[in-house]
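Figure 6 in text form: structure in, sequence out.
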């Protein structure tokens, strides 16, 4: 099975082709652009496919980072994954940022539960606790920075990620950054289900300005 992994949830605009038979990435393109994912997404996908010499129709499954993350970035990635999967009749699965961070940290901490976090700003972090096998012990949610220590203590979990850094519970590590390889690996074991949707844990920061709406006819 060939998997096309996509990630636009943070600064990177990423795509990779993962060959389940060999357990390896065979095509990859990552651009760290911060913004403008919609403009670059298709070109990045094309570059990853071209590297391995395949067409979109050769893909069996598409795995996409569903967040949490940038509201707009997550929406772009999920929309692209769903549209492409529909067009080429491929399976589509979602992989969360928090599950990815936990997976990356667990590789270096076998036998430890981890609390994966992402800084959500405005005094909050997105967080979720995973056990030693990577199974979730809590639901993903936004928490105040000062709540993170108690959540980690309650579940005997090691706090990791950018939210834990801001809260003073951890130092920065390379594993804090979600990689497209992780999206691909976790996407390989994900069970296809209902339509893939973004994982939004709170309303977007950008809101329409009141008083400037044009009256509808």
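Output sequence:
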């Amino acid at each position: 099975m060939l998997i096309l992994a996509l990630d636009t949830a943070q600064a990177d605009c990423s795509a990779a082709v993962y060959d389940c038979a060999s357990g390896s990435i065979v095509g990859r393109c990552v651009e760290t652009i911060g913004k403008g994912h919609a403009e670059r997404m298709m070109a990045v996908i094309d570059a990853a496919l071209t590297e391995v010499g395949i067409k979109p129709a050769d893909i069996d499954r598409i795995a996409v980072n569903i967040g949490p993350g940038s509201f707009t970035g997550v929406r772009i990635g999920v929309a692209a994954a769903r549209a492409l999967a529909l067009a080429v009749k491929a399976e589509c699965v979602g992989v969360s940022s928090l599950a990815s961070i936990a997976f990356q940290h667990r590789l270096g901490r076998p036998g430890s539960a981890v609390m994966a976090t992402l800084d959500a700003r405005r005094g909050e972090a997105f967080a979720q606790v995973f056990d030693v096998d990577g199974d979730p012990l809590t639901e993903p949610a936004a928490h105040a920075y000062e709540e993170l220590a108690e959540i980690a203590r309650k579940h005997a979990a090691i706090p990791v990620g950018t939210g834990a850094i801001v809260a003073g519970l951890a130092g920065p590590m390379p594993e804090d950054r979600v990689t497209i390889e992780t999206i691909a690996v976790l996407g390989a074991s994900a069970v296809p289900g209902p339509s893939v949707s973004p994982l939004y844990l709170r309303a977007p920061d950008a809101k329409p300005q009141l008083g400037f709406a044009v009256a509808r006819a």
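Caption detail: The mean pLDDT is 93.
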